[in-house]
# Entry
Amino acid sequence: MTSTGPRRLQIASGLKKLRQRSDLTLEEVAKRAGYGKTTVGRYEDWTSKTMPKPRAVRLIAEAAGGTDAEIAALVRLAEDMPEGWWVGAGVPEWLHPLVSLENEAMQEGAFAPSVVPGLLQTAEYARAIHLAEMVRQPLDVVEALVAARMQRQAVLDRDIPLHLWVVLDQAVLRREVGDRTVMAAQLDHLMEQAKRPNIDIQVLPFKAGAHAAGFGHFITLGAGDSTDAVYVEMLGGGLYIDAKEDVRRYTVAMDYLRSQAVDTTESMNILAAERKEYDK
# Structure
């Protein structure tokens, strides 16, 4: 009954589907379960800061009319959900849902129109990004963010690693983040990472003109071949999307971007050419 995808998303969508199937309001489920409407709403929102508790999941699922098998499946998901490393590790709270999804996802797509995606950044490049964004923050705060970003990249080294497919706007390769030495190292890193079997990098060249994603940086994530959720980067935060039709729009946009970008071989040629510019 529950959807595929990371556990927090499965619990939230599963509880919501049970309630909607029973034609019940949040207030009605809350009253039956002995919780407030706000609590039930948080359990149906996978981006909530609330860590699902097995007892609460059981009571809400029962109140929403779940079968014994459905309730047991949702409770088991809650019981198997450890608190992630990112809690208290310097990762901003608004980014927790993304890191949580990445931790369980099998595939991730990313369109990067302005900077290299976090999973492929060097520490020096990440530091320059954070220093530019957080001009009034103490250096220890910035260093904690850089360390967290580096730890986030561990998903690429799992026994069954995340498959990352990135489309980089060519402008990303030209924008000098940090200094020329930082950029040279970053482009070297991209070319090295592209050799890995679980990482595909394509460049969207300037000559491609207008493209399918004029709305900015976004990430698609899924536990299987399909996309479960989308993260859209915004100033000082991010937007999380899991409504099927909205997810479909971003999936189609990513497909078009991949078709508009040059293939991986030509992308490496562009990367190599751009890298040489930083030696001048």
Notes: The first strand starts at residue 107 and ends at 112. Residues 93-277 form a domain with the Endonuclease; Chain A fold (CATH 3.30.870).
